[in-house]
Protein 1
Amino acid sequence: MEAITGGELVARSLITRGIKYIFTLSGGHITPIYQYLEGSSVTLFDTRHEQAAVFMAEAWGRMTRSPGTAMVTAGPGFTNALSGIANARMANSPLVLISGCVGLESSEKLDLQDMCQLPVISPMVKKAFVCHHPERIPEFIDLAYRTAASGRPGPVYLEFPVDVLNGEANPEKIKTIHTDIDSHPADSDKVERFMEMIGTAHRPIVIAGSGAWYADASKELVQFIEHTGIPAFTSSLGRGTIPDTHPFCFESSLAIRPGAALVANMTADLIIFLGARMGLFYIFGDIFNREAIIVQLDIEPEEIGRNRSVDLAVMSDVGAFMAECNRVIGEKGIGNEWRNRFSDWVTTLKKAREDGRAQATPDWECDTVPIHPMRLAREVDAFMDQDDDIVVADGGDTQVWMGMTRTVRKAGHYLDSGLYGCLAVGLPYANAAKLLNPDARVCLIIGDGSVGFNFMEFEVAIRRKLPIVVVISNDLGWGMIRHSQELRIGHAIKEGSYIGRVDYHKLVEALGGKGIYVERPEDIRPALEEAFASGMTTCINVMTDPSVVSPGSVALASLGAYKAE
């Protein structure tokens, strides 16, 4: 057999695995891989910053439910990728980060871009691997992708020293491995106990989180709530697994959302947590009725019982467990009885939803200038009304306003950073969404602070002919920080909270895109129509009211100030 280099083995393994895109920024330590991917079935999608490459891979992994791939060079390329990895870990996004590093023979010699990378990233990922022998490269690549996709998804790190990539592998020692895992365990022993709990409840709710999305459980969830009449809420990537337009879905489970979530969380007597995490957004479990029975289902055992004692712990795939529940309900014929018993509860939540929306309507319909940010969010939501439309939210207050407003009709079609609260995800997420869904309309709504982080990804969108529409909520600075400081210390510190007027739309025009400037609320929809009709990457720079305080700002002002009872 002919001798083969490590770099070629990496390329062959990725090609054989069917990887379509690698999101990357080039560098000397990964050129040995690049040279064998050039002209192959794998597209090297180059970004302007390694952070953006990882964010694109993360979005790809979220939307496809299979690991996205990012590749960065050693040293600063590696460190630039870390924020994206931290975000992916908190959001349970499947991805594989491939990084080059200094050669094994050059370690501790003060070689170019030398640093000890493995100890830095190991706590941030599901697993970190370093391959020291060219012959074992196919094994390590298979191991990395299996680890990222199995169980609870997450990021995996795979490092190749440059002399391993340039070194020749002994053909006799190469072991080619390619294993796909498709496991959907159902803890059927818990179904009967679960049925008993439903049978004694009067005010139950379902909260479906990211685990429901990764389990592809939409069909089973909808069937379950239709069988039982239990009102449902969704969170994180679970948004849309039960469409917000379904009669038994009461939209987001976040209490700040205008609607029924606050009433439901505080008064339900049975909380059915399906692939969701009980963290900050539920005040660490304290938002729920103290007397409520808690059922928590998750594929990851460490997540069950976090912050709150659980009455029934189910370690299972959401879809498989729901399918088994649906079978039992059908066999016993108990659905009608439950639907009748819970009908008054559903009516109560419908009334709470109407009341919550009524309180928010003045902001959604506000005609003031500068524009109320809730009015902007409502205009975007109303315009992006097709099932295949994809909306991405990025920023502090801006992400909060959109999360309070967006109607999610289809799972996998609403993206934000999640609990890590990482700014700068917006442009990479939107570019990845458009790349994956070229026929869908993709709209990013982003704060003027956040857009500055990865602004040159506008150039990537233009160069790659990805006609995304970016709406900037321009409140002249870091609104969430400004307002939280005003609430906590009585005034905003100008340094670090104020940016001022920037004509972002003109900057995008200079890059070759389209720019639109909006000052009046009645001009938002015409601007969206013009942007999407143009077929160009477009920036709509919307001047919003810098004085409006979001619930997120109020929460940030209390950060670290939680009082023990």
Protein 2
Amino acid sequence: MTTLHNPHDRFFKATFGRTEVAAEFLERYLPPAVAETLDWTTLRTEKDTFLDPELAQHPADLLYAVNLRAGGRGYVHMLFEHKSYVEARINLDLLRYRVRIWEQWLNEGNTGLLPVIVPVVFYHGAAAWRVSRQFAETVDDAPMLRAYVPSCVYHLVDLSAYRDEELRGAVRLQVALLTLKYVFRDELRERLPGILGLLRELEESSSGLDFIRALLRYLAQVASTDRLSNEELRQAVTQALSGGGELMMTIAEQWEQQGIEKGIEKGEARLLRQQLTWRFGALPGWVETKLAQAESARLEAWAKRVLDAPTLEAVFAER
């Protein structure tokens, strides 16, 4: 499984990696005609990611296999977007993902017609989503050559387009959707007590407590102090949940330790960045992405290669 350093990505996978949550979400938020075509009782997680260097700007995605009610198997590929800007080339990226999924299907020894893939973009960023959902609209239009341009769309779930009362479902799903909707907004402080109040029925089960811990850790890591201070979060949790105080104490300890470890990693990444710049000159974006996401062990391995690697690519080559 891919190691995720971004708290948004970790919370997304912790929530939608559970097939019952993903099935309910997709059945509710895909177009009705599409949802009715798929047998949601058969949904299963197929692969946790199709991340590669060309698609590194999209760290979190999930692929689900699902049976078609009319027979056969298809896939739903869900890409999670939380950046403060909208990725302009997402149509091209989604096409690349589809090709990789089909390649895996063929490599597994399957034959015949390729399975259908339903691409879904789940977005909760701050900027308005203005990218076309039709791939053909991103290609220069030559009327006599349109037959050669792929005609494919993706389904967009933009949480800002939904009213709170439309974000329904079982507790895990509803809480996750409301949290993701407001985590970048000033209204988070006033909405949080109501969101946390929904969690009371999960306190009695171990899996429910795991979700509560994941949620609180996510809020503690991503809520900026002007939207929600640590003390305000602690008070809201203590008031909403019977064991809220103990939960926050445990998370605070873990958070402090993660902060220490992250500080060490940032220092190591800063030193490696300087070494790479001295050796190879200005660093491209893909290198900055790798340095930002790498753990200490990986940074140390790359640092050992800096002195004798012939190229920048050789420093980061998988071995």
Protein 3
Amino acid sequence: MKKILSFLLFATILFTFSKAQTAVEKDVHFNFKEANTSLLASNASYTGKYSLAYYQKDKAYYEKKVAKYKKMKTIGIVLSSLGGAALAGTIAGTVVLSRKADWNDGYTSGGTTYYDGNTGAAKALGMAIGGTFLTAGLLGPGIPLAIIGASKSKKYNAKLSGL
């Protein structure tokens, strides 16, 4: 008897899962805008109350987004400007240090070459490498922040003015 009940339970579960997997999925779409307008059209007493509330909610949302992306754009412009200044400083500093450097590290006296180790070439190289990393660290995030901030700010400004 237990075998028959176990078999029936197993068959029922198998049948249920097989039907659940072959069920046709339907996309359900609900348009909130149409539902809202139909609600407002059917009951005139809601019109003033709900449309003003939705307008104020949307307006506040878009104003917050515009302020956020304007701030992002400003930060991007500042970082990009600092990166440009770092690039100019790196180039100028490397050129100055390179000209002052003694690229001939040793001197010869009496057939023997002596090395003094004080060339200044390491300073020029350090300036170039450090400045490159600083420039990349400022320009890298600055340019995308400025571009994304400007485009999103413009997008939400257009939506705000369309309300």
Protein 4
Amino acid sequence: MTEPVLIQRPQRWDAPFGPKMSEVQVQGVLQLEPFCNMDPDKFSRATPLADIIRNDTRIRNYRNGDIIVRADDYGDSAFIVIEGKVQVVTRPGLSERLLGRTTTKKKGFFEVLRQLWSNPRDPEVRDPTRYGARRETGSRQHGTDETHVFLQDVPAVLEHHRTVRLGAGEMFGEIAALGRTPRTATVFADGDVELLELRWQGLRDIRRRDDEFRQHVDHLYRERGQKEYLRSTPLFRGLGASDLAKIADETLFETYGDFDWHTKYKKLAEASAAERLAEEPVIAQEGSYPDGVLLIRSGFARVSVQVGNGHRTISYLGRGQAFGFEEIAHNWRFDETVPYQRTLRAVGYVDVLRVPTSIMEEYVLPNMPPDQLPPPIEARGAAGSVADVSDEASGIKPGMLEFLVENRYINGTATMLINLDRCVRCDDCVKACAATHGGNPRFNRHGRRYGRYMVANACMHCVDPVCMIGCPTGAISRSSLGGQVVINDDTCIGCATCANSCPYDNIRMVEIRNDRGAFILDEDTNRPIVKATKCDLCIDQMGGPACQRACPHDALERVDMRDLPALADWLNRE
């Protein structure tokens, strides 16, 4: 009999955020505001304050003009200024070129036509003369393991853009850290600056243990992001500034699930349905009192109903959608109260704003026109039945809906779905993709299947693009044209951070060549230069995705998974 292998259980801090944090640095940080005012006894033995600083923070140094964070990038950390100053660009925002991103224009008719015969014979051909040719920004090494993008002409930026200066002790980046939402502004160093970067796990733990710190961070969050978010939510659009401020003050910010859900996604995908469901924290329970309207701030949530001893998924919610409003409106209008009619669970990681029922009844419902109020609710039985939920479904068969939710395909704004009954395996989709990308296809025609449908191995241009987190140069970003996730080949340094982070394996690292077919090598190491590649949704093509246009049997569709009616129409067509 084979003897079992004994190892220590992996711990949270096996991979510290800043492996170079010395004991001197840790003690120095503990002497700074706000940490010097915190009571260490309020922290648990498993996560003491000193260990949070040692493992969840790192010291970052920047030189004048270095870009620290970029507007619209996705991040998972906040920053506190230790020494020096930073400039926050308010308006107008910096151009895509200044931020080191790609700027794309549509190809003309003859340029598109020329692609048919001008593509090189060798794979992944590049023009090496364009690397390093940017003028507005440059990149420079800081130490041995960091690359910073910097602004070449800071005075010109300050002349044409409005900025706000932050000094020692001030915090920024907390909105993205708390919600994995895009950075709201670009921040760059104003002279030499030293920062403490605090990753979201540490921010979460300190916020839980120290009331003053939590109140400070929540105040910043409300002032910088929450009011604007409420203002953009349909339920609150008709309210005045004073009412919105009161609602924001009473609204609770809650988080559920694992922020870094993508790190265990593949393992969980192979688990049983019961195991997967057990990993999804319950946000609101069917049958419980509706104590508030839940607004999805970021991430996704599964909506399910109890059927016998199990649960059936009937829908899912994403950013900007609400849960519980129908029940609260019903109870406000009628004497017979009803509980939550469905269960809401976090899929991966979810940020929720909980607007208390009393606040909805005082500020929102009295000001809502009667024709905008939902119809009365007929309460379901305690255990429900298949018949009870069949009419509640989104038009998508329950099995397919479970498949899409559990594999996180709901994250896609352009998920590639293929109807295998229509597909004749001609590969015209792959050939068309190659023709529009220099002879190099950007997806693979295979993937997970459910019934007659397959989700192809192609970039889905996710709502929550975890591939963007950690890119040192901002080479992977959302396009300003339509939200496509694109890679700037000029600024990509081949670090593979994006490829390693993508939970769907939709980014590849490739060795590049020149127009003669010779590999382009690093002059220092003599090793091939690699670049990240993936589907860019044919952002520069006149007709959109070439794969979809080329399919002769209408078997392939790029689907925005947020549009459930359109998805249902495509799935249910004859």
